[in-house]
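ok trying again, last paste got cut off:
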Amino acid sequence: MAGKAKTYSPLLLLALLGLMLPLLLTYLNYTKRSSKDDLDYNKPNLTGLLINDAKPEFNKTNWFSGSYQKESDDYNNDHWALKEKMVRWNNQLYYTLFRQIRVNGFVSGKEDYIFSEGYIFSAFGDDLMPEEQILTLLQKAKVVQDTLKAKGIDLLLVYAPGKGRYCKEYIQDKYVHPVKTTNHERFVNYSLKFGLQHLDLLSYFENLKSSTPYPLFPKFGHHWSYFGACIASDTILGTIEHLQKKDLPDLSWKEIEVSDTARSRDADVLKSMNLLSAPSQNQKLAYPKLLFEQDSIKNTTRVLTISDSYWYDQVYMGIPQNCFAGGQFWYYNNKVIPSPKPGEKVEVWQLDLKREIESNKVIMLLYSDGNLPKFGNHFIEDAYELYTSPATYYARTEYNKQIQQFAKEIRESPVLLKKATAGSETLQIPLDSAIRLDAMKMAGFIK
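nice, full thing came through this time. structure:
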């Protein structure tokens, strides 16, 4: 008697096909690595994702320590043929169904506005610093201002607006509550009390809100709009002219192009969302065609700008070259832009602080309200110590150089930076603190 023929359920076959599909698609999308130095091998076109380009080296030490296996998993995950598609599908699913944004620290608001959650907290005073901390910081700033003034150098503090404060009406209701006070209010009040030279762009933007013909903040961007950056730049130039009692090259525009598609950095968060298809932008944004006065005599007031990412707009516009005599931008008082050594990344700790300060006519610190808790990123404290206690300043900075060298190495290595990022999440500390912790371990200062 013949045996009964074995049959398979259609559901089982479908499930097997589903399990095999990723493997099949990976094979179909596979591209051969041209050489071991091919850094674009299966590299996903994703914004804001840290991709490990260096294939781990196989050797006895790495194998027995377990690092080779871990780094290989990380590398293969980054260069998986379907990495980009899967990330975009996943992000699109969360955004379409739940309006969740898969960008760390960002949330969706009303009418598709996107916000940094930290800037929402700043708008409602939820990140309030201890008053004594602000008081001490600005007292030191006053000493620095007076010391530099005697040398013919102006210190200017600029308080830039944040999107959470400016676009409050688009914030989700769950964040909204009565505001008692904010870091911005305290910084401005103490600046007035101590006679600090400052520019309150946040209040200026709020005064313009009812009359501005174009948005000063875009829906899908984190920073001020390109038009807002133009307004801020013109105001800053006027303030510096008043302080220095000198004419700077004029910034002007006769034509404004209006577009319903964001340009420049007006959709920087949208790019980082890595979606399959972008939502409708639904907003008219303005793009002035900038004109700089070409006058070499006027363009002699060198300005050093220490700022958060807001100042990148002005860098891209050409403000430092055309108006500030080529003055540098110290990004979070760390990365030097442009690098004084072409082709090499240079950080502030590698420079002679006294020489750098005194080679400028204006030192401008510009921070948005969401970054006031780290205002200046220790520039004020360092400058204060430099001019009031140079011996302790130089002793401390010399001690820190080895740590900072390793920290720089970590920031420039995707493998080490990923490890530090994971450590910051595990220990629930800022990434900068996690990098310093790893750097101290590499330097042998701690185990």
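cool. The chain has 18 helices and ten strands. The two ends are 74 Å apart (CA to CA).
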